[in-house]
Automatic annotation (TrEMBL):
<dbReference type="Pfam" id="PF01266">
    <property type="entry name" value="DAO"/>
</dbReference>
<feature type="domain" description="FAD dependent oxidoreductase">
    <location>
        <begin position="30"/>
        <end position="397"/>
    </location>
</feature>
<protein>
    <submittedName>
        <fullName>Glycine/D-amino acid oxidase-like deaminating enzyme</fullName>
    </submittedName>
</protein>
<dbReference type="InterPro" id="IPR006076">
    <property type="entry name" value="FAD-dep_OxRdtase"/>
</dbReference>
<dbReference type="InterPro" id="IPR036188">
    <property type="entry name" value="FAD/NAD-bd_sf"/>
</dbReference>
Length: 462
């Protein structure tokens, strides 16, 4: 029997963390952080490190690591959310190059802090492998290879079909791109270890404490985070609620909560691994419009994720990761297509989580000294690394430091909001229906990208 939900497979081995106390009444601190995922915890970590005298409280509605940070695919990648080209237009090529290098370095920063803090997050820096599985996907791979000539910062290498299969024997692979700036991690071990590391630095995490409203500070009065258990007043309040942001008063249409779903096999036997290869433990993705992302886990399983039910009407979010049987079947089908050798492996666990999608599909780090309010998020599916840089950037902004991080293109942006319902729901359903149709046409032999996918790009506003 496949376990369905229970937050995620990543908690199956160690169990959910022991609950921390909830807020017990009104409180005054220097910095309050709403949300204990990677964004909130990295912000707390660097703030506490920069100024140990700061009183810092993290307010979390369930438990630290309950959100995407405890459920993701474990790709610690160097991706700039939403791509680089849009920022070139607004900020110039040189700064975007700096941004890319900063994200490359951030992969190593996460690995270093994990080592320094004694967090065993199953890190393996084997890079990421993006594989084309049909002729239309190969066209997009070639386009990416051409783009890489303009972005040597990625250090990407184009691999032939044979060289691809030598690394990972993906059935039907026609070629791939290898980007070295990526590591496989165990998401829940990272977030659990990080929560413990911030506590060691004197930060208090209040769990089972839902923030319903965040109010700006004004004329000397501090900002306030309102909860059912009391109000927390602070000179600075940072919102780090990502896919759950729509639940906060006044933020309903800021970021669309998009679902991503995953399944994991039982550990595969040595004979199966011999057929598959994958000794480098690269993270793996294809070039489908509704792409899949995979990792080989430290204990020899394959975890594969992709888009299931993309979005629920009215920005509702699921609570425990339960996943529709249809989605489990679809992901299992793709797994078998890619790795026939794993066809007999039991699917042990399925789960889902929400990510935050801004209207322009690009992440943002904002802080306003006049109100004391800041936030970071909207990483779509690429926040595992970016959250660390966001946490360091928020630290600099709160402390009033002008640094290389605070001038990056994602800082202090204004993004338009999503359309009201039912337009929002119809738009997302339509977009993914078109992407799935395009993928099916390309799987059936269409040689070039299906036009319907370009229409979907237009609808999505990417
Ligand atoms: C299935 C899946 C696979 C993914 N795979 C990858 C990947 O491989 N690589 C990658 O880079 N990215 C991936 N992502 C995205 C990545 O996980 C996220 O970008 C990242 O974890 C975001 O961290 P966060 O702290 O901003 O948000 P979250 O981890 O979602 O944390 C937000 C926290 O805020 C709390 N909260 C929300 N509202 C309130 C409130 N009102 N009051 C108090 N607390 C509140 C929540 O309970 C939660 O703990 C994936 C996401 C999913 C769902």
């Amino acid at each position: 029997m496949t376990t369905n939900g229970n937050v995620s497979f990543w908690y199956a081995e160690d169990g959910l963390p022991a609950p921390r106390p909830a807020l017990a009444g009104d409180l005054e601190v220097d910095v309050a952080i709403v949300g204990a995922g990677y964004t909130g915890l990295w912000s707390a970590y660097y703030l506490a490190k920069a100024d140990p005298s700061l009183r810092i409280a993290v307010l979390e509605s369930r438990f630290a690591g309950f959100g995407a940070s405890g459920r993701n695919g474990g790709w610690l990648a160097n991706t700039i959310t939403g791509g680089r080209d849009g920022y070139v237009k607004s900020h110039g090529r040189a700064l975007v190059g700096d941004f890319q290098r900063m994200l490359n370095d951030t992969v190593d920063e996460v690995i270093k802090v994990a080592a320094d803090e004694g967090i065993d997050a199953h890190v393996n820096k084997g890079g990421e492998l993006l594989v084309a599985r049909n002729p239309a996907q190969l066209g997009r791979l070639e386009a990416m290879a051409a783009e890489q000539l303009r972005w040597p910062e990625d250090d990407a290498v184009r691999l032939s079909a044979a060289a691809t299969r030598e690394r990972i024997n993906v059935a039907g692979a026609l070629g791939s791109m290898h980007i070295p700036h990526c590591a496989r991690i165990h998401p829940a071990k990272l977030v659990r270890g990080l929560a413990e590391a911030v506590e060691r630095r004197g930060v208090t995490i209040y769990e089972n404490t839902l923030v319903t409203e965040i109010n700006a500070g004004a004329s000397g009065a501090p900002a306030a985070a309102v909860t059912e258990r009391g109000t927390v007043r602070a000179a600075h309040i940072l919102r780090a609620t990502e896919g759950f942001t729509a639940n906060l008063a006044g933020a309903h249409r800021d970021w669309l909560p998009m679902n991503s779903s995953m399944i994991v096999t039982e550990p595969l036997d040595a004979g199966t691994w011999e057929q598959i290869g994958w000794e480098g433990c690269e993270t793996l993705e294809d070039f489908a419009h509704a792409y899949v992302y995979l990792q080989r886990t430290a204990d020899g399983r394959i975890a594969i994720g992709g888009r299931g039910v993309p979005y629920r009407f009215g920005s509702r979010t699921d609570m425990d990761g339960a996943t529709q049987p249809k989605t489990i079947k679809a992901l299992t089908g793709i797994l078998h297509e890619m790795f026939p050798a794993a066809g007999g492996a039991r699917i042990e666990h399925a789960w889902s989580g929400v990510l935050g999608v801004p209207r322009d599909w690009r992440a943002t780090v904002n802080y306003d000294p006049a109100t004391g309010l800041g936030f970071a998020g909207g990483y779509v599916g690429t926040g595992v690394t970016a959250t660390n840089l966001a946490g360091r950037t928020l630290t600099d902004l709160v402390l009033g430091r002008d640094t290389k991080a605070t001038v990056m293109p994602w800082v202090n942006r204004t993004v338009r909001r999503w359309e009201p319902e039912p337009v929002r729901w119809l738009g997302v359903q339509g977009m993914y229906a078109m992407y799935h149709r395009a993928d099916a046409q390309e799987r059936d032999g269409r040689a070039a990208t299906a036009p319907i996918a370009r229409l979907a790009d237009l609808v999505s506003g990417r």
